[in-house]
Amino acid sequence: MNLKLGKVESYIHEKLEKGKLHFVLLDPDDIGPEMAGKIAEMSEEVGVDAIMIGGSTGAEGDVLDSVVRAIKESSSLPVILFPGSHGGINKYADAIFFMSLLNSRNPFFITGAQALGAFQVKRYRIEPIPMAYLIIEPGETVGWVGDAKPIPRHKPKIAAAYALAGQYLGMRLVYLEAGSGAPEPVPPEMIAVVKKVIDVPLIVGGGIRSGEQAKTAVKAGADIIVTGTAIEKANSLEEAKEKLEELNRGIKG
Ligand SMILES: CC(C)=CCC/C(C)=C/CC/C(C)=C/CC/C(C)=C/COP(=O)(O)OP(=O)(O)O
Ligand SMILES: O=P(O)(O)OC[C@@H](O)CO
Ligand SMILES: [Mg+2]
């Protein structure tokens, strides 16, 4: 039995020794390969730590393929898949968040998609990183698609119980997700309570669109901040770069 961590997971842990991390999520359903390549290149310049690729609707097949390849060609950042189902697996990526949506009502999102994708991950030698994925209110599209029972925003203990259960099930990351484009990010009180009970790194995303909000989440205890919409919604590459810099300063100080 080989208990050694893979390359990308080791990279994450080494970087976490020095500070908090910023991952940028690109959705192939919203952004073409050319733009994705440019944003990945800029992200690397600005000091982002990894690119995540995924979406809850339509990030599959040729569309996914061309975006992953464009990103690999234009930056040396690790590319981590963030799949909505087994259809979100792609052979050009370095790693995959092999996640289980623990508070889904539908077993497809807890173990079904994972079983359907497992052999592809093995065949393509993509590094799987086991992750507990928890949907917090409002949950947005991913909450609806993933058939989640979203955790109430004012019930941090429920989130903490799921997070600890995930750790005890062997998951090596916990992700608190308010939903892409959520009007408000996960409350800092909830981040703090979850962080206190788990030993694995804590990822927080959904609705973080300012440096100030990113800073608040980090101060509360988030180890890794994920941002997507704020960068995708920028009106120009210059604006996207400024946003990346602002978010990165909020996270890294
Ligand atoms: C590990 C494998 C093979 C599958 C996991 C399958 C699971 C558990 C999926 C969880 C539910 C789900 C639909 C997740 C999607 C993740 C995701 C990419 C969310 C947010 O992305 P955006 O694309 O920015 O949001 P929109 O879809 O709203 O645009
Ligand atoms: O698009 P935003 O709101 O930044 O959310 C990022 C990520 O948590 C979505 O899965
Ligand atoms: Mg999207």
TrEMBL record:
Record-level GO BP terms: glycerophospholipid biosynthetic process
Family annotation (Pfam families): PcrB
Residues that bind Mg(2+): D27, S56
Cofactor: Mg(2+)
EC number: 2.5.1.41
Pathway in which this enzyme or protein is active: Membrane lipid metabolism; glycerophospholipid metabolism
Major localization class: cytoplasm
Enzyme class per UniProt: transferase
This protein's GO CC annotations: cytoplasm
Keywords: Cytoplasm, Lipid biosynthesis, Lipid metabolism, Magnesium, Metal-binding, Phospholipid biosynthesis, Phospholipid metabolism, Transferase
Amino-acid positions noted as binding sn-glycerol 1-phosphate in the UniProt annotation, renumbered to this chain: Y175, L176, E177, A178, G179, S180, G181, G206, G207, G228, T229
Protein location: Cytoplasm
GO molecular function, one term: imidazoleglycerol-phosphate synthase activity
Reactions accelerated catalytically: sn-glycerol 1-phosphate + (2E,6E,10E)-geranylgeranyl diphosphate = sn-3-O-(geranylgeranyl)glycerol 1-phosphate + diphosphate
Entry-linked InterPro entries: GGGP/HepGP_synthase_sf, GGGP_HepGP_synthase, GGGP_synth, IGPS_HisA/HisF
Physiological role: Prenyltransferase that catalyzes the transfer of the geranylgeranyl moiety of geranylgeranyl diphosphate (GGPP) to the C3 hydroxyl of sn-glycerol-1-phosphate (G1P). This reaction is the first ether-bond-formation step in the biosynthesis of archaeal membrane lipids.
Stated family: Belongs to the GGGP/HepGP synthase family. Group II subfamily.
Database matches in PANTHER family: GERANYLGERANYLGLYCERYL PHOSPHATE SYNTHASE (PTHR21235:SF22), IMIDAZOLE GLYCEROL PHOSPHATE SYNTHASE SUBUNIT HISF/H IGP SYNTHASE SUBUNIT HISF/H (PTHR21235)
Annotated protein name in UniProt: Geranylgeranylglyceryl phosphate synthase
The species this protein was found in: Thermococcus piezophilus
